[in-house]
Write a structure and sequence with these properties.
The complex is a heterohexamer, with 3 copies of chain A (about 90 residues) and 3 copies of chain B (about 375 residues).
Chain A (H helix, E strand, L loop, with lengths): L1 H41 L10 H33 L1
Chain B lengths: L1 H9 L1 H4 L2 H18 L5 H14 L12 H9 L4 H13 L3 H5 L4 H6 L2 H12 L10 H8 L6 H11 L4 H26 L2 H5 L10 H18 L4 H16 L3 H8 L1 H15 L4 H4 L2 H31 L18 H13 L6 H25 L3
Helix pairs in contact in B: 3-4, 4-17, 5-17, 6-11, 6-15, 6-16, 6-17, 9-10, 9-19, 10-11, 11-12, 11-21, 12-19, 12-20, 14-15, 15-16, 16-17, 20-21
One sodium ion binds next to α21 of chain B.
């Protein structure tokens, strides 16, 4: 059992070294590739067409359409008022 | 009267073993944590409910022909459910903060030390009578330190199906406990000046970079560590669907209805592994203890790596963000933000912590791939 | 020319048996009821369509390898589809009215008499040559009186799979016919003064009560009648997701996309049991007759129990609401409201009838559990 | 057959008695438990945070934000009008 | 060190065969077409991703127990996924334009000539060494001319599973290439005067006609060609749900979440058939060539039939709309509209082209049924 | 092989004839049935209750409710203004 434990611990140490090594190698390669990629496409590329922004844009359109309606309604009301007060 | 006897013989009261009552209480305890304490309710509620159902005598939810039997064998035995969840999580994840500052990947790497260090703990527990963890068991337990639910379930289903219930419960519970576990460690390893450091605003990231990123991750993964590609690949598929802009309807479904359906089923199936025989053992206590250790070590190593990077960068990096490297998205990043605000009320670290946070997801998927490649069940 | 002969030999025209044509006509009849008469269209439309498809010669929809074969065996043979529907129905059900006035549960209990009384009818039909109902058949037929589609399908799939098609069609048809079947019985058993009774407004119910309610039902069920926990448990899971407030995205999916997908599949699978051999028998006529009897007895017993409670409470309970105890949610409650309004145009009984109505769902799930426990197929 | 029928009818009677008994016992226990529960948690507990209400609240917020806009637009219009008529 | 060797032995680098690298490049090529060129991205993105995943060594995505293995065998081997897609497409299709002008069905019929003519091409390719297409292979390849993805996948899964990957890729690629393939053929076969023809506005179609239409199609199909009823029947079910107005929640789910989920899975499963052995063969080149021929002949026959109808109707029909008869909904109708506008800027043919376009879907489903009835794998 | 090819080509010709024949028969029958059906139900039937229209209707209701609000707000503002200017 003790012996077995030693073997298991040795395997665990092995896993720790290899595992952390591969994790760091993997993610370090990724760092360099991201930098490379960004330097190739990132700077020239247009800023993202922010998909989340689309609904906002629509909503704004909605709002401004509404604003226009409000303004139109007010113009009409004020016009009417002027007529009445003439 | 015969019918009455048959009926009595089929009541729960006449058939309960006390262990089943305890497990049903455990199930209700999980429901309490989910509902009243808001501990990862999306998973812990179905897990708790599944635990109650599976321990009802006579009903046979987890016997061949029972509902949970089908759900477990179709979804977890095959690995399909965790992979679909991973695709959905990929479709919900924005890698912008990481692409803007790729060095954050080092923090996501450092925090995985929690996983591999816990291997020793699991093996050393074998010194205590009653524990007999194999290397496969130890690996499945250690992945709790990855702070990533579907990764833990996927690995446990491959390496130690008997421990799956306890491992999943530990993983989600500790993810919910991040706001309690992490701050003391973060504060112990940093001084107030370090915690006050304000970081530079991140540059905007173009859509093209966001599209190429998941493909790049996929390529590195398939070249270096094909065993990690089920997890990493489905994650990248989800992320690609999110960012490419041409399949929004698929991305939306992956992030919503599909992941919701699979979450209900996955939770019930995990709960079905919370049977008395599998859970009411001393090993469960060991798993809970080791999970806490793994979380602690992961947090500490993330913070220490961030301290090192702070030194090397001339104080431009706030060491707190290292804690987000364990993943537990987005809880860990929020905790970093909160602790940062305590030190400096104008220091908003949330966006900076998102980089290591999503890096931690990749890191633990890679770690899981290594364990799958080197450890056999 | 050989090809032409082969093609001719594979046309429907050359292969039809007249029974298949009759069954296809039955399928179109169900589509007509669903679309033109709005008879429970969500179920009867896919059932009718499935009935057409399964009776097409050569196409082999219900032969091994055919679409309906897979759907039936995956979804109904396993019991998974009715249970998922039950979860969705649970997520759609508001027990507020019942918690505010728990005595209404007695009405939900009384209306189940329809189920057990129909057992005698089914057995007595054996006196007529051509009928050979076993006790399992009789039980599966009697559950039509529960006025609850998924419960009927679940029980029939367990006790009498051969009769499943006819039982499901009868159950949904009579649920759609509630506005025609119930009012004469309700009026025959009550006088105008009783129908005019206005009931006290219900108290508001707190969220905490609504959260505890499904858990309480689950506990009673697992202690007393574990055989009922598949149905009751999934119903409670859906209701808990609805009320707990922390898993709204799961609850929303269970009430919408998931139940919709399963409804399409369940309907087609039920339709696939409407084959000529299984449906064009004298037994189908018996099932239709017995279903009407079960509905009638259930309605009558509900009203009579409500009359008793009216007497005992000193006239505070309108006996009409007893009719809602058969379930058929929410149709039966609406019928009660309508008949109440006829007697007194200011008497809105809808909310009061919702209590017995949802009680009837629990009542028939309990009755199904008893039949599962005591009757073997 | 007749004999068999008698046996079946006897079983059915058995089922009727036991079945209705269990249904009533089950639901009566539930009545008492609901009452107990309501007396323990119901009266003290706050009225439900009505999940359905949430969208309404949002919608109301939306509306009131809109109302504010309308009021602001009107104030501006009326102000403008006053200026014009001075 | 042993672990290091094991890990190395499990890397992709140590295990790649060059063919797998080529196939991964093919997968990335499909992703490029889907994302950058917007070639049918909803299908080609998951197909491309599946092609990458299935060719990763060691990971075993398509080996028994792998994710893509399950998805393929559950969804395509059984035929379930293409049928569900067809139901969803039916729920998205408006037959109004066709009901208003039923003669358009002749154009949908004529365009199927592309399918049957391509049979000769596939067989004649056997003269070239390396090609050995059976009649079943030839039929599965020829259906590419139907310009309908799910029909092609369904037929290929039945008649030539080994060619499924290449056939699906060819079908979706050519559907995306319709704007490039069709205009030259359309212009070569018509003169400018013909292209300028303005067609009469279509009458409005009542809801009742739209409800009866799918039922009528189903009846003709089950009488004449039961082999076509899996495809035609599911299409009609979807369309009936759409039009009947009483099951809107089912129709909405069939058009959205259900079809989205199935599309992701179908794409991945088709991609899993893009293995090096199956795809890197001379047969793939043959399939690509034959697909283009089939498209071309289909377009030409559609236009020629429209020219004939133009003559017979005294110039009331614009021959361009014949090109829409190949289906490829709605791309082909849009191309017709665009070419029409080039000839006459006030000539909007879109609505008129929708008739032959949806007729083409029915036409190729019928053609598939004939091939299923007369050709055995 | 050549022989086999001839047989295959013959079968293909067979398929072409039968296939196109059945496609045309199928769709021609459909043409007549559609015409028959339209003459039976189409002309008398009301134009479709356009399901898509429902949300629009709601939206319109929303809009008109909003419009009413705007009008009400304006009336109030104008009324107030009149009062002020008296
Ligand atoms: Na992690
Ligand atoms: Na009931
Ligand atoms: Na076509």
């Amino acid at each position: 059992m003790e012996n077995n434990l030693g073997a298991l611990l040795f395997e665990a140490a092995n896993l720790l070294l290899i595992g952390m090594g591969v994790v760091f190698i993997f993610l370090t390669i990724l760092i360099f590739l991201i930098k490379l990629m960004s330097s190739l496409v990132g700077k020239n590329a247009p800023t993202p067409a922010a998909p989340v922004a689309t609904p906002n844009i629509n909503r704004n359109t909605g709002k401004s359409a509404q604003d226009k309606k409000v303004v139109a309604a007010i113009s009409a009301a004020v016009h009417q008022y002027r007529q009445d007060n003439k | 009267m015969e019918g009455l006897m048959t009926l009595w013989a089929s009541t729960g009261i006449a058939n309960f073993h006390y262990q089943q009552l305890i497990m049903i209480a455990v199930g209700f305890g999980l429901l309490y944590l989910a509902i009243a304490k808001k501990f990862e309710p999306l998973l812990l509620l179905p897990i708790g409910f599944g635990a109650v159902l599976t321990n009802i005598p006579v009903a046979g939810f987890s016997d061949p022909g029972g509902l949970l039997y089908y759900v477990y064998h179709i979804g977890i035995d095959t690995g399909v459910f965790p992979l679909l969840i991973f695709m959905g999580v990929g479709a919900m994840t924005d890698f912008g903060a990481l692409i803007a500052n790729p060095k954050m990947l080092l923090l996501g790497a450092a925090a995985q030390t929690g996983i591999f260090a816990t291997l020793f703990g699991a093996i050393l527990l074998n010194l205590i009578p009653g524990f007999e963890f194999t290397l496969a068991d130890a690996s499945a337990i250690a992945i709790i330190g990855g702070a990533d639910g579907p990764t833990a379930i996927f690995l446990a289903s491959r390496l130690a199906p008997d421990l799956l219930g306890a491992i999943a419960v530990a993983a989600y519970s500790y993810m919910a406990l991040v706001p309690i576990i992490q701050p003391p460690i973060m504060k112990a390893l940093t001084n107030k000046e370090e915690r006050k450091i304000v970081m530079e605003q991140l540059r905007p990231v173009s859509q093209r970079e966001k599209i190429i990123f998941p493909l790049m991750v996929l390529v590195i993964s398939l070249l270096l560590l094909p065993e990690a590609t089920p997890l990493v690949g489905m994650f990248c598929l989800g992320n690609l669907m999110r960012e490419c802009g041409v399949v929004d309807r698929l991305s939306k479904t992956a992030q919503n209805e599909l992941i919701n359906i699979v979450t209900i089923a996955l939770g019930l199936a995990v709960g079905s592994k919370l049977s008395a025989e599998a859970f009411l053992t001393v090993e469960t206590l060991g798993i809970l203890a080791l999970g806490a250790v793994a979380f602690g070590i992961g947090t500490a190593c993330g913070v220490l790596m961030a301290k090192l990077m702070c030194k090397l960068s001339g104080g431009k990096i706030n060491p707190l963000i290292g804690a987000a490297g364990v993943s537990a998205v987005p809880m860990a990043a929020r905790v970093v933000n909160k602790v940062g605000l305590e030190a400096n009320p104008h220091n908003f670290l949330l966006m900076h912590a998102m980089g290591p946070n999503v890096a931690g997801v990749l890191g633990s998927a890679v770690a899981a791939g290594i364990l799958l490649a080197l450890v056999s069940p």
